[in-house]
Amino acid sequence: MGQDAYPAGFPPAYALYTSMQPLMLRTGALRAPGDNAYCWVAQSFLDELAHAAARDPLEFQLELLSNKQAPWSAGEHDAVGDHEPTGQSVLIPERYKGVLELVAEKSGWAHRSKSPGRGMGIAAWFCHLGYFAVVADVSIDAQNKVMVHRIWVAGDIGSQIINPAAAESLAFGGIIEGMSHMGQEITLVDGKIQQSNFHNHPVMRMKQAPKIEVYWRKTEYAPTGLGEPTLPPTLPAVSNAIFAATGKRIRTLPLERSGFSWA
Asked: What CATH architecture does domain 35-262 belong to?
Protein backbone atom coordinates (compact mmCIF):
# COMPACT_ATOMS: atom_id res chain seq x y z
CA MET A 1 0.00 0.00 0.00
CA GLY A 2 1.77 3.13 -1.20
CA GLN A 3 1.24 6.81 -0.68
CA ASP A 4 -0.94 6.88 -3.80
CA ALA A 5 -3.37 4.18 -2.58
CA TYR A 6 -6.96 5.09 -1.76
CA PRO A 7 -7.96 7.29 0.01
CA ALA A 8 -4.80 9.22 -0.95
CA GLY A 9 -5.58 12.05 -3.37
CA PHE A 10 -9.17 12.45 -2.21
CA PRO A 11 -9.21 14.07 1.27
CA PRO A 12 -7.56 17.52 1.35
CA ALA A 13 -5.14 16.27 4.05
CA TYR A 14 -3.80 12.73 4.07
CA ALA A 15 -0.62 11.02 5.17
CA LEU A 16 0.37 7.36 5.43
CA TYR A 17 3.26 6.15 7.53
CA THR A 18 4.46 2.61 8.10
CA SER A 19 7.01 1.05 10.40
CA MET A 20 8.66 -2.33 9.97
CA GLN A 21 8.52 -4.80 12.83
CA PRO A 22 11.23 -7.48 12.93
CA LEU A 23 9.84 -10.99 13.34
CA MET A 24 11.57 -14.10 14.56
CA LEU A 25 9.75 -16.34 12.07
CA ARG A 26 9.11 -16.26 8.35
CA THR A 27 5.59 -15.35 7.32
CA GLY A 28 3.49 -16.25 4.30
CA ALA A 29 0.74 -14.43 2.48
CA LEU A 30 -2.95 -14.71 3.21
CA ARG A 31 -5.44 -14.24 0.39
CA ALA A 32 -5.33 -10.62 -0.86
CA PRO A 33 -2.06 -9.93 1.01
CA GLY A 34 -1.77 -6.44 2.44
CA ASP A 35 -5.15 -5.30 1.21
CA ASN A 36 -6.91 -7.72 3.59
CA ALA A 37 -5.63 -5.57 6.46
CA TYR A 38 -5.43 -2.11 4.86
CA CYS A 39 -9.02 -2.26 3.61
CA TRP A 40 -10.34 -3.21 7.04
CA VAL A 41 -8.54 -0.26 8.64
CA ALA A 42 -9.34 2.34 5.97
CA GLN A 43 -12.98 1.40 5.37
CA SER A 44 -13.75 1.00 9.07
CA PHE A 45 -12.26 4.45 9.73
CA LEU A 46 -14.19 6.05 6.85
CA ASP A 47 -17.38 4.61 8.34
CA GLU A 48 -16.37 6.10 11.69
CA LEU A 49 -15.75 9.49 10.08
CA ALA A 50 -19.15 9.36 8.39
CA HIS A 51 -20.81 8.66 11.73
CA ALA A 52 -18.93 11.53 13.38
CA ALA A 53 -20.12 13.82 10.59
CA ALA A 54 -23.72 12.54 10.93
CA ARG A 55 -23.59 11.38 7.32
CA ASP A 56 -24.78 8.24 5.57
CA PRO A 57 -21.64 6.11 5.01
CA LEU A 58 -22.47 5.53 1.36
CA GLU A 59 -23.10 9.20 0.59
CA PHE A 60 -20.00 10.17 2.56
CA GLN A 61 -17.77 7.89 0.51
CA LEU A 62 -19.36 8.79 -2.82
CA GLU A 63 -18.69 12.45 -2.06
CA LEU A 64 -15.11 11.66 -1.10
CA LEU A 65 -14.60 9.83 -4.39
CA SER A 66 -15.82 12.93 -6.24
CA ASN A 67 -13.22 15.07 -4.49
CA LYS A 68 -9.97 14.04 -6.17
CA GLN A 69 -7.32 16.52 -5.04
CA ALA A 70 -4.45 15.69 -7.36
CA PRO A 71 -4.22 14.10 -10.82
CA TRP A 72 -2.92 10.56 -11.07
CA SER A 73 0.38 10.41 -12.93
CA ALA A 74 1.13 7.79 -15.54
CA GLY A 75 4.59 6.90 -14.25
CA GLU A 76 4.79 3.18 -13.59
CA HIS A 77 1.06 2.76 -14.21
CA ASP A 78 -0.69 1.76 -17.42
CA ALA A 79 -1.77 4.88 -19.29
CA VAL A 80 -2.95 6.03 -22.68
CA GLY A 81 -3.16 9.30 -24.55
CA ASP A 82 -2.82 12.30 -22.26
CA HIS A 83 -1.83 10.25 -19.21
CA GLU A 84 -5.33 9.09 -18.39
CA PRO A 85 -5.16 5.69 -16.66
CA THR A 86 -6.47 2.60 -18.39
CA GLY A 87 -8.08 1.35 -15.19
CA GLN A 88 -5.89 -1.71 -14.89
CA SER A 89 -3.41 -0.51 -12.26
CA VAL A 90 -4.67 2.91 -11.20
CA LEU A 91 -7.87 3.57 -9.28
CA ILE A 92 -10.64 5.07 -11.43
CA PRO A 93 -13.12 6.86 -9.13
CA GLU A 94 -16.10 6.23 -11.41
CA ARG A 95 -15.52 2.47 -11.29
CA TYR A 96 -15.22 2.56 -7.50
CA LYS A 97 -18.41 4.62 -7.21
CA GLY A 98 -20.13 2.31 -9.67
CA VAL A 99 -19.77 -0.80 -7.51
CA LEU A 100 -20.81 1.13 -4.39
CA GLU A 101 -23.96 2.38 -6.10
CA LEU A 102 -24.79 -1.05 -7.51
CA VAL A 103 -24.41 -2.89 -4.19
CA ALA A 104 -26.44 -0.18 -2.46
CA GLU A 105 -29.23 -0.62 -5.00
CA LYS A 106 -29.27 -4.43 -4.78
CA SER A 107 -29.18 -4.49 -0.97
CA GLY A 108 -31.86 -1.84 -0.48
CA TRP A 109 -29.35 0.28 1.45
CA ALA A 110 -31.50 3.40 1.34
CA HIS A 111 -34.39 1.56 3.06
CA ARG A 112 -32.38 -0.51 5.55
CA SER A 113 -33.86 -1.05 9.00
CA LYS A 114 -32.09 0.39 12.02
CA SER A 115 -33.54 -1.75 14.80
CA PRO A 116 -31.42 -2.47 17.91
CA GLY A 117 -29.35 -5.59 17.56
CA ARG A 118 -29.45 -5.63 13.76
CA GLY A 119 -27.63 -3.48 11.25
CA MET A 120 -26.11 -3.22 7.80
CA GLY A 121 -22.58 -2.17 6.92
CA ILE A 122 -20.99 -1.17 3.63
CA ALA A 123 -17.42 -1.14 2.36
CA ALA A 124 -15.52 -1.22 -0.93
CA TRP A 125 -11.98 -1.58 -2.22
CA PHE A 126 -9.81 -1.56 -5.33
CA CYS A 127 -7.04 -4.13 -5.40
CA HIS A 128 -5.59 -6.87 -7.58
CA LEU A 129 -7.09 -5.01 -10.56
CA GLY A 130 -10.69 -5.44 -9.35
CA TYR A 131 -13.32 -3.17 -7.81
CA PHE A 132 -15.66 -4.70 -5.25
CA ALA A 133 -18.23 -3.36 -2.82
CA VAL A 134 -19.93 -5.37 -0.08
CA VAL A 135 -23.00 -4.85 2.11
CA ALA A 136 -23.49 -7.12 5.13
CA ASP A 137 -26.72 -7.64 7.08
CA VAL A 138 -25.83 -8.66 10.65
CA SER A 139 -27.61 -9.36 13.92
CA ILE A 140 -26.13 -9.62 17.43
CA ASP A 141 -27.77 -11.60 20.24
CA ALA A 142 -27.63 -11.00 24.00
CA GLN A 143 -24.38 -13.00 24.26
CA ASN A 144 -22.70 -10.82 21.60
CA LYS A 145 -22.80 -13.66 19.09
CA VAL A 146 -22.69 -12.41 15.52
CA MET A 147 -24.90 -13.83 12.78
CA VAL A 148 -24.37 -12.60 9.22
CA HIS A 149 -27.71 -13.15 7.48
CA ARG A 150 -26.92 -11.92 4.00
CA ILE A 151 -24.11 -10.40 1.98
CA TRP A 152 -24.48 -8.53 -1.28
CA VAL A 153 -21.41 -7.97 -3.42
CA ALA A 154 -20.96 -5.92 -6.59
CA GLY A 155 -17.86 -6.24 -8.75
CA ASP A 156 -16.27 -4.53 -11.71
CA ILE A 157 -13.59 -6.63 -13.40
CA GLY A 158 -14.01 -5.19 -16.87
CA SER A 159 -16.03 -5.84 -19.97
CA GLN A 160 -16.40 -9.60 -19.96
CA ILE A 161 -16.90 -12.46 -17.49
CA ILE A 162 -15.22 -15.40 -19.21
CA ASN A 163 -16.67 -18.09 -16.93
CA PRO A 164 -19.70 -16.80 -14.96
CA ALA A 165 -20.02 -19.86 -12.70
CA ALA A 166 -16.33 -19.82 -11.78
CA ALA A 167 -16.46 -16.06 -11.21
CA GLU A 168 -19.35 -16.42 -8.79
CA SER A 169 -17.55 -19.25 -6.96
CA LEU A 170 -14.41 -17.14 -6.59
CA ALA A 171 -16.47 -14.29 -5.18
CA PHE A 172 -18.12 -16.65 -2.69
CA GLY A 173 -14.75 -18.04 -1.64
CA GLY A 174 -13.25 -14.61 -0.98
CA ILE A 175 -16.23 -13.60 1.15
CA ILE A 176 -16.25 -16.78 3.25
CA GLU A 177 -12.49 -16.59 3.73
CA GLY A 178 -12.75 -12.91 4.68
CA MET A 179 -15.31 -13.75 7.35
CA SER A 180 -13.05 -16.58 8.53
CA HIS A 181 -10.17 -14.13 8.96
CA MET A 182 -12.28 -12.23 11.47
CA GLY A 183 -12.19 -15.22 13.81
CA GLN A 184 -8.63 -16.42 13.26
CA GLU A 185 -5.45 -15.67 15.17
CA ILE A 186 -1.88 -16.96 15.23
CA THR A 187 -0.07 -16.69 18.57
CA LEU A 188 3.46 -17.62 19.57
CA VAL A 189 4.77 -18.92 22.88
CA ASP A 190 8.52 -19.41 23.20
CA GLY A 191 8.78 -19.25 19.43
CA LYS A 192 6.20 -21.97 18.86
CA ILE A 193 2.90 -21.44 17.04
CA GLN A 194 0.03 -22.43 19.32
CA GLN A 195 -2.56 -23.18 16.63
CA SER A 196 -2.26 -26.57 14.97
CA ASN A 197 -5.44 -27.19 12.98
CA PHE A 198 -8.97 -25.98 12.33
CA HIS A 199 -10.16 -26.73 15.86
CA ASN A 200 -8.20 -23.69 17.10
CA HIS A 201 -7.81 -21.83 13.80
CA PRO A 202 -11.42 -22.08 12.58
CA VAL A 203 -12.90 -21.40 9.16
CA MET A 204 -16.57 -20.54 8.67
CA ARG A 205 -18.91 -23.50 9.06
CA MET A 206 -21.68 -24.12 6.55
CA LYS A 207 -24.32 -23.27 9.17
CA GLN A 208 -22.62 -19.89 9.73
CA ALA A 209 -22.38 -18.97 6.05
CA PRO A 210 -24.78 -16.23 4.96
CA LYS A 211 -26.79 -16.05 1.79
CA ILE A 212 -24.53 -14.36 -0.76
CA GLU A 213 -25.68 -12.45 -3.84
CA VAL A 214 -23.13 -11.45 -6.47
CA TYR A 215 -23.72 -8.77 -9.11
CA TRP A 216 -21.46 -7.59 -11.91
CA ARG A 217 -21.00 -4.13 -13.37
CA LYS A 218 -19.68 -4.44 -16.91
CA THR A 219 -17.34 -1.64 -18.05
CA GLU A 220 -15.27 -0.97 -21.14
CA TYR A 221 -12.00 -2.08 -19.58
CA ALA A 222 -10.18 -5.32 -20.36
CA PRO A 223 -11.11 -8.30 -18.15
CA THR A 224 -9.05 -8.81 -15.01
CA GLY A 225 -8.82 -11.50 -12.33
CA LEU A 226 -10.99 -11.82 -9.25
CA GLY A 227 -9.45 -14.51 -7.09
CA GLU A 228 -8.62 -12.05 -4.31
CA PRO A 229 -10.45 -8.69 -4.40
CA THR A 230 -13.77 -9.85 -2.93
CA LEU A 231 -12.06 -10.64 0.37
CA PRO A 232 -10.86 -7.23 1.67
CA PRO A 233 -14.18 -5.31 1.79
CA THR A 234 -15.93 -8.21 3.53
CA LEU A 235 -14.15 -7.55 6.83
CA PRO A 236 -15.06 -3.84 7.19
CA ALA A 237 -18.59 -4.40 5.86
CA VAL A 238 -19.23 -6.87 8.69
CA SER A 239 -17.44 -4.69 11.25
CA ASN A 240 -19.44 -1.65 10.20
CA ALA A 241 -22.65 -3.69 10.40
CA ILE A 242 -21.76 -4.71 13.97
CA PHE A 243 -21.39 -1.03 14.82
CA ALA A 244 -24.74 -0.24 13.19
CA ALA A 245 -26.35 -2.97 15.29
CA THR A 246 -24.65 -2.29 18.63
CA GLY A 247 -22.91 1.10 18.58
CA LYS A 248 -19.61 -0.67 19.34
CA ARG A 249 -16.61 -0.30 17.06
CA ILE A 250 -14.44 -3.26 16.12
CA ARG A 251 -10.87 -1.99 16.31
CA THR A 252 -9.14 -5.31 17.04
CA LEU A 253 -9.38 -8.70 15.41
CA PRO A 254 -10.19 -11.53 15.91
CA LEU A 255 -13.72 -10.72 17.03
CA GLU A 256 -13.18 -12.40 20.39
CA ARG A 257 -10.72 -9.67 21.34
CA SER A 258 -13.53 -7.14 20.91
CA GLY A 259 -16.03 -9.17 22.95
CA PHE A 260 -17.88 -10.79 20.01
CA SER A 261 -17.95 -14.28 18.51
CA TRP A 262 -19.62 -16.06 15.62
CA ALA A 263 -23.03 -17.53 16.35
From this structure: 2-Layer Sandwich (3.30)
